[in-house]
Specification:
- The protein is mostly helical and about 140 residues long.
- The protein has one domain.
- It is globular.
- The protein has six helices and no strands.
């Protein structure tokens, strides 16, 4: 947390909100990343191009940021296996919950969706509980 600044958090959150609002305004679509990824594998769907452009933009933005701010590179102190297992569990959870935090918390709550509010409360409660158990009770992470 020593590198946290409210300015970068505000800018990042504003850009996420702006991109979600623009996608909703121009395409009438929710910016749920897990839904975009799942939908981009539906080869029978003729609307895959916007999903691929949006996802490609996420990847390119991260690459450009890393080019211009190389000291901000992310490092991981956990094992690769733990990261893979975590990613699979998150992917399973997003399919089970019909969406991820970007779809429910950013877009759904902005639309005052009761389902999204409930999902976001559940995400946060499970995250807090997981951190408490793994760090404070088990001392794993």
């Amino acid at each position: 947390m020593e590198n946290f600044t409210p300015y970068s958090a505000f800018l990042g959150g504003s850009l996420i909100g702006l991109s979600a609002a623009l996608l909703m305004y121009f395409n009438g679509r929710v910016a749920g990343i897990s839904g975009m990824i799942a939908g981009s594998f539906d080869y029978k769907n003729s609307e895959n191009h916007w999903r691929l452009f949006f996802l490609g933009g996420l990847i390119l933005a991260a690459m450009f940021f890393n080019l211009f701010v190389p000291h901000a590179a992310v490092t991981y102190s956990r094992s690769t296996l733990l990261l893979i297992i975590s990613g699979v569990l998150v992917g399973f959870g997003t399919r089970l919950g019909n969406g991820c935090t970007s779809g429910h918390a950013v877009c759904g709550m902005a639309r005052l969706s009761i389902r999204s509010i409930a999902a976001t409360v559940a995400f946060m409660a499970v995250a807090i509980l997981t951190v408490f158990i793994t760090r404070h009770l088990l001392g794993i992470l």
